[in-house]
Amino acid sequence: MKSELWITEKQTEDLLMSFRVKNTLHEEITDFQQLAVVDTYAYGRMLMLDNIVMTTIKDEFVYHEMLSLVPLNTHPNPENVLVIGGGDGGAVREIVRHPKVKQVTLVEIDEKVIVNSKKYLPEIAAAFDNPKLRLIVADGIKHIQENHNKYDVILVDSTDPIGPAVGLFALDFYRDVYAALKEDGIMAAQTESPYLHDKIIKQIHSDLKSLYPLVKLYLASIPTYPTGLWSFTLASKKHDPLLVKQDDIQDMPTRYYNSKIHFSAFALPNFLANILE
Amino acid sequence: MKSELWITEKQTEDLLMSFRVKNTLHEEITDFQQLAVVDTYAYGRMLMLDNIVMTTIKDEFVYHEMLSLVPLNTHPNPENVLVIGGGDGGAVREIVRHPKVKQVTLVEIDEKVIVNSKKYLPEIAAAFDNPKLRLIVADGIKHIQENHNKYDVILVDSTDPIGPAVGLFALDFYRDVYAALKEDGIMAAQTESPYLHDKIIKQIHSDLKSLYPLVKLYLASIPTYPTGLWSFTLASKKHDPLLVKQDDIQDMPTRYYNSKIHFSAFALPNFLANILE
């Protein structure tokens, strides 16, 4: 018989999502946040930071493929890639298998996220031994400030804009990211739910538009994130994701992303397109 | 101060969604199902049937626009439209404002759904007085059996395939729908979540493929439905939704649907495309 043990995420003040729990694998307070790994019936093992679902075994592929592969396939030669955050390793796993990538630098502030992902989420933390990976445990904001004209693609794989990640949603940070990118560089960031966080999305869009000639929002369906619809914002100095040739999109054994999804993810519902005008 | 009254939907055995409640507006047992209208903080007034969320004021537009406008804009002349189910009136509201529609017939089995939607969800039940509407309270399965070669478009706006709606997911029903459609007719149905109900989706797809030359799945993001991603299946005797000219898509004041969404909704993630092969 299944247990009646449930874990509940307060997605907003007015909305709860509860997952039936097989067992709790790990809990600790790190230097930065509360960390838990819980095994659930619906989504398998789940990483929670400060009681918010970060990633689960069953639906992580959507987030990691869409954050990584849309910008990587927009850039004609994404040799040198940086990930800020993303200590679970899911984005890195996608990036290292892209044939044009020569090196990916992962800068995660909380080593405990890496340690516990390797231990409890090996399917996600699958590329920490990959020779393409350069792993740095440090503050991503500082790393960005110390590097100029270096990266082809920078991904911001952050938690929500509360707690340690607040600085990763600020105009100053985006300015430093711009400087850390090469002259045809691209950045992409997770930018919350269109149904819940339209003000944040609008602000990020406007901030990035003040820096980059090309800023576009794209969407993916992620069941364990609030409302099930998630946004990513791509900002590019030169290359347009919608002008990519379909044949140039790398054929990889993905579970969500493909060449049709690459383009269709940028089609925005009216309620969302209207707030970005 | 906000109440601590919550209503919880058991989305699956292992997954709960809870909404903070302002107040309960109505509850009754009809001849067919348990009906409740609850006012929630997150999504406004919400219609529940047998404890499952049917529609809410804040996100109903996605479902109703996508069920109705994708097939209507695929047919060059959708003069005569039938909706099976859909007693809340949301689909009808979309259909009557399409300029090419001359008549829409709504066949709802449970009059109480209509009565309570008109009373508590007037924004959704907004077109019951429209002269284009022919309202019939009856079993949709019988109505379909009694009509041949009559409709341009038939929409199946059903509850989940349990309880009164089981027959609306059966091959026999689809065969009768085929017969009720004109020679270039189109049917579309809500067909559950790709993340939870892949077997149902696959079965429906296969059943419809045995009848129609063209069967396509399309997707929309609906926050209050389990996993937040919902599928619709369109089956067509002649017209292909992907061959519609962008300029032929009616310009209507929609909140979700637009000409880009019309096409992008058919782009399927790999995990879903693979099960339909």
Describe the protein's topology:
Two copies of one chain form a homodimer.
Chain A: E1 6-12, E2 15-29, E3 34-40, E4 44-49, E5 52-56, H1 60-74, E6 80-85, H2 90-96, E7 103-108, H3 111-120, E8 133-137, H4 140-145, E9 151-157, H5 171-180, E10 181-190, H6 198-209, E11 214-221, E12 229-236, H7 259-264, H8 270-276
Parallel strand pairs in A: 6-7, 6-9, 7-8, 9-10
Antiparallel strand pairs in A: 1-2, 2-3, 3-4, 4-5, 10-12, 11-12
Helix pairs in contact in A: 1-2
Describe this structure in words.
Chain A is α/β, with parallel strands linked by helices and 277 residues long. Chain A folds into two domains: 6-56, Spermidine Synthase, Chain: A, domain 2; 60-276, 3-Layer(aba) Sandwich (Rossmann fold). Chain A contains eight helices and twelve strands. Chain A has helices at 60-74, 90-96, 111-120, 140-145, 171-180, 198-209, 259-264, 270-276, and strands spanning 6-12, 15-29, 34-40, 44-49, 52-56, 80-85, 103-108, 133-137, 151-157, 181-190, 214-221, 229-236. In chain A, helix 1 (60-74) crosses helix 2. The longest helix of chain A is centred in the first third of the chain and has 15 residues, at 60-74. The mean pLDDT of chain A is 96. The A-B interface holds A 2, 6, 8, 12-20, 40-42, 59, 61-62, 195, 219, 221-223, 227-229, 254-258, 260-261, 263-271, 273 and B 2, 6, 8, 12-20, 40-42, 59, 61-62, 195, 219, 221-223, 227-229, 254-258, 260-261, 263-271, 273. Strand 2 (15-29) of chain A pairs antiparallel with strand 2 of chain B, so a sheet runs across the interface.
